[in-house]
Specification:
The structure holds two protein chains of two kinds. Chain A is built from three helices and four strands; from the N terminus they run αβαβαββ. Chain A is of the alpha+beta class. In chain A, strands 1-3-4-2 form a four-stranded mixed sheet. Chain B has 28 helices and 31 strands. In chain B, the strands form eleven sheets. A six-stranded mixed sheet of chain B has the order 9-15-14-17-8-16. Chain B has a four-stranded antiparallel sheet with strand order 10-13-11-12, covered by helices on one side. Chain B is globular. The N and C termini of chain B lie far apart (78 Å). Classes of the chains: A alpha+beta, B alpha+beta. At the A-B interface, β4 of A face loops of B.
């Protein structure tokens, strides 16, 4: 039986896909400041990444990914959207 | 001015970055001191041919020779380049792809990029901006632009029609015209590249300031100086030239041949042929392993090692001479065990100690000591090898010195004495493969007679060493800074805990475990003599403890003795290794003494075995001592108490014999009955299968289901037989003790010795190889019974049947092959991993970063915890806190 879920919900609802969130400009500045880095020093995520496509991320956006971590419980990672 | 003094006066800079680009023909001509035109190397009288590849203008390399270019002798002459003027231009191999891209995306007439002007300047702008921040992206962008412009069929600037190019590696270009494919000669390619303008080329990823595209086509070839390709004079006076020289001779020969053809107006086909040969030879000179070229070789078919071959691979310049170098102040020899030295010592043979030296600066405090060393000379330990007189700026080699006394008296403050290694010096000790940081540790020297390095047995675990002929390396750090750094960071005692899994990696193995078990087991009661022996082994200086039993004679328990050495206040609770099977119990109400309780530094209950003192066993007694009382205390414990454990074995005597694995007749009969029963059941499965009545496992074929069922049943048979055999064993059976305490072997090994070997497998399946439908000739074709497919009912004690030996050999061979393959594969995996991770670091803000400061992980390990300081990876261990509180 084909699934009735939309592609979007399939991806976001998958148990291996962690929570993604696009940070607002203020939040982005806050994060960069707390890490003491420039945006290009962040790990990158492609604009063609399925989740980024769904969230509508644009190059330069910073995405917060909240993952389950075996050592720390919850772990927040940040990635900057790039166009390649 | 000599080279050394010139070096001092030269202004020195730190290298910030290295920029690679192409050499321009003008530069090549400028730096060339000689033009090579003759393929001969030597004249008939043995002197080098002028204008040949050994022309003296390439620089002085013979002793006493003066360089005709710079006037220096061979010590000071840096060597000079020459050149070969090529009769016709030739492509540089390796750059074919770049040439292809530029030719495709530029006009074949006017050399402009095949895009309108505004687009070119727009893209150039984007490219330059990208290059600053996202260099990787800039390259991708340039590729994209090239793709776009190469698909244009008419030049927007001059309106010329464009053709597709066909590029056949390594250096053949065809233009696909309507009338057919025309080969482009290097001359034509060069002309086209010349027409490309500087302002255009940027957008294709070429920096015109660094290199013009036409430089990718050689018109003049630089010839390296002689010092790059020295010849070797053999004993019989014959000269052997370097491979590069041979390759150059070949280039000159082909070049001259082409020149002749050109000047004699030879037919076009011959010129063409000579030109392509020259192209090929030059490509081989640069890289003799390019695909689709004729490789240059010696007469004896051996390939020439040309430029690329010098640099490439494990023995190449980069991996063999720059990343890895041979070092001085090091030694290597066989290792042998010595339980009587400390774990942070290493026994160094006197012969080696007399060669390895350490510089000590003479001060008012050590001048007498320094004099003693000098007085002893270079051949008596502890002596000295060299003396540097600082005032006279002189180095004196004691080997060529007669009067040691005079020299010793002339020592002044500030002189430097290179003395022999002495006890207590810090050295680095290493065993390959160096897979983790514990593979190189700092030890303190202990000079000994003999010719082997001596190593405490407890250090075997981190080095993964044994004494079946293993060799190890020793290095002497010479500067004060290096020595103290090694002592503070790399000393063995600082490496007891492994950062790999947060537990001790140094600890007891084998006899240490058997010994500690025998010492601490309930039944052990020791007489005064025995206690004295044990205490002496452990270097105990305190008072004799109160005996546990007074009448009829004073007797001590092993637990009492161990308790003497446990740090005060230590509390511990946990299961011993023997706490399994029939000796299982879950709390302190343990009848079998298999639950360890230490309260305030006293072993109240339980035995010490692998779970208490074993190596690579996290959360054991040793771990807690190291973590909570410091590595110094742990080292003391390891040095003293562990010596007591082996002394215990020496007192008791410990060995195994055939009797150890013999089981009574009754047990044998029971096993035979079990075997019969299993065979019958399996025969039933086979019958079912043949009739088609076998229950098939979903997703498997009938054959697979049958195999699975049989294997399962046979596994159960062996387990049952093993259990039965072990149940008949005396608890003080030495083989049994070793298996249960974790000292050596396991229940399976005992089963195989006493009961049955069990199923032999090849590739995870029952053995089915050999003849077409049977494994060995004595079986009927298609026999699926256990014996015919490699199940061994015999045991090692009674011996194997002849056909069983074959099956056992087949299984054993697979094991050997597996280990050989596994080590090479995991070795390569390790190399790749290390290369990828080597320059990551944990910065002071807790993030993991790479060499340019980009973030890899926002917090090390996602929780920022150093596993070395944890309880088996957990930063906080609640159980341990409760244990501690309970013990108080």
């Amino acid at each position: 039986m084909p699934s009735k879920l939309r592609e979007e919900d399939k991806i976001l609802g998958h148990y291996l896909v962690p929570k993604h969130r696009i940070l607002s400009l203020e939040e982005s500045v806050e994060v960069l400041k707390s890490l003491g880095i420039k945006p290009w020093q962040l790990p990158r995520i492609s604009i063609n990444d399925p989740v980024v496509k769904i969230l509508g991320g644009k190059p330069g956006d910073i995405i917060e990914i909240e993952r389950d971590s075996p050592t720390a419980g919850k772990y927040k990672a940040y990635r900057v959207v790039v166009s390649y | 001015m000599s080279y050394a003094s010139a070096y001092k006066e030269v202004e020195r800079y730190l290298i910030d970055k290295i920029h690679f680009s192409l050499l321009s023909p003008i530069e090549i001509r400028k730096m060339a001191k000689v033009t090579v035109v003759r393929p001969e190397i030597y004249e008939a009288d043995g002197s080098p041919v002028s204008g040949g590849v050994r022309d003296p203008h390439f620089g002085a390399i013979e002793p006493g020779e003066r360089c005709p270019v710079c006037g220096n002798t061979r010590e000071d002459c840096p060597g000079h380049f020459g050149k070969i003027d090529l009769a016709r231009p030739v492509l540089l191999p390796h750059l074919g792809d770049k040439i292809n891209v530029i030719l495709q995306s530029t006009c074949r007439n006017c050399g402009r990029i095949l895009l309108p002007d505004e687009k070119i300047s727009y893209y150039t702008n984007i490219y330059l901006k990208l290059k600053e921040k996202w260099p990787v992206l800039a390259e991708t962008f340039a590729d994209e632009v090239a793709k776009q412009s190469s698909s244009v069929s008419e030049c927007p600037h001059c309106g010329y029609k464009q053709y597709k190019l066909k590029f056949i590696k390594p250096f053949t270009f065809y233009e696909v015209r309507p009338e057919g494919e025309i080969r482009l000669t290097p001359s034509e390619i060069r002309e086209r590249l010349e027409r490309v303008q500087d302002k255009d080329i940027i957008v294709l990823g070429v920096d015109p300031k660094a290199a013009r595209p036409e430089w990718m086509v050689l018109t003049v070839l630089p010839v390296p100086p002689l010092s790059v390709r020295p010849s070797i004079t053999m004993e019989n006076g014959l000269r052997a030239e370097d491979d590069l020289t041979h390759a150059l001779v070949e280039i000159v020969r082909q070049n001259e041949r082409l020149k002749n053809f050109l000047s004699s107006n030879a037919p076009e086909s011959m010129v063409e042929e000579a030109w392509q040969t020259l192209q090929n030879v030059i490509a081989a000179y640069i890289d003799n392993e390019l695909p689709n070229i004729y490789q240059l070789s010696h007469r004896g078919r051996k390939q020439l090692k040309t430029i690329a071959q010098r640099l490439k691979g494990k023995e190449g310049r980069l991996r063999g001479n720059l990343n890895g170098k041979r070092v001085n102040f090091s030694a290597r020899t066989v290792i042998s065990p010595d339980p009587y030295i400390s774990i942070d010592e290493v026994g160094v043979p006197e012969e080696i100690a007399k060669i390895l030296t350490l510089p000590i600066v003479v001060t008012p405090y050590n001048i007498e000591e320094a004099r003693k060393y000098v007085l002893n000379g270079p051949y008596n330990w502890p002596g000295a090898m060299f003396v540097y007189k600082s005032k006279q700026n002189m180095k004196i080699d004691l080997r060529y010195q007669r009067n040691y006394r005079q020299l010793a008296e002339s020592l002044e403050i500030g002189d430097i004495v290179e003395r022999h290694l002495i006890n207590g010096d810090i050295v680095l000790f290493n065993r390959q493969p160096s897979l983790h940081r514990m593979s190189i540790m700092a030890h303190k020297v202990r000079v000994m007679p003999g010719r082997t390095f001596r190593l405490n047995l407890l250090d075997c675990a981190p080095y993964n060493a044994d004494f079946d002929g293993d060799e190890m390396n020793l290095h002497v750090p010479r500067l004060e800074e290096a020595r103290s750094e090694a002592e503070e960071l790399m000393l063995v005692e600082k490496q007891i805990l492994s950062p790999r899994y947060g537990g001790p990696i140094i600890g007891g193995r084998q006899d240490y475990i058997s010994g500690s078990y025998l010492l601490t087991v309930k039944t052990t009661l020791l007489t005064k003599e025995e206690v004295s022996l044990l205490m002496a082994a452990a270097n105990y200086k305190g008072k004799m403890p109160e005996p546990a039993i007074i009448k009829p004679q004073p007797l001590w328990t092993g637990k009492q003795l161990v308790s003497l050495f446990l740090p005060e206040g230590l509390n511990f609770e946990g299961r011993a290794k023997i706490n399994a099977g029939e000796l299982k119990c879950d709390n302190e109400r343990c009848f079998f003494d298999s639950y360890d309780i230490i309260s305030n530094g006293r072993l109240l209950m339980g035995v010490f075995d692998k779970n208490a003192i074993g190596a690579e066993q996290p959360e054991n007694v040793l771990h807690y001592i190291t973590l909570e009382y410091g590595s110094d205390k742990a080292r003391e414990f390891l040095d003293n108490v562990f010596r007591m454990f082996i002394r215990m074995l020496e007192i008791k005597g410990f060995s195994i014999s055939l009797r150890e694995v013999e089981i009574p007749k009754e047990a044998k009969e029971k096993i035979n009955i079990m075997v019969e029963q299993a065979k019958n059941e399996i025969q039933e499965y086979i019958n079912d299968y043949k009739e088609g009545n076998l229950e098939v496992i979903p997703g498997r074929t009938a054959e697979e289901s049958l195999e699975l069922k049989i294997i399962q049943r046979l596994q159960k048979l062996r387990d049952d037989a093993g259990k039965l055999a072990i149940s008949y064993m005396d608890p003080f059976n030495n083989a049994f003790i070793m298996a249960r305490t974790g000292a050596r072997g396991s229940d399976i090994n005992i089963t195989q010795m006493a009961a049955m070997l069990g199923q032999q497998t090849v590739r995870g399946k029952r053995i089915s190889r050999g003849f077409r439908t049977r494994t060995l000739p004595q079986f009927k074709p298609g026999d699926l019974s256990p014996e015919a497919r490699g199940f061994i009912i015999s045991n090692f004690r009674s011996g194997l049947k002849p056909y069983e030996v074959f099956f056992h050999a087949a299984g054993g061979r697979e094991g050997l092959v597996d280990t050989a393959v596994k080590t090479s594969q995991s070795g390569y995996m390790q190399r790749r991993l290390i290369n990828a991770l080597q320059d990551l670091y944990i910065s002071y803000d807790g993030t993991v970063r790479d060499s340019v400061g980009d973030i890899i992980q926002f917090k090390y390990g996602e929780d920022g915890v150093d596993p070395m300081l944890t309880y088996h990876g957990k930063a906080v261990n609640i159980d341990r806190i409760i244990q501690k509180a309970k013990g108080e």
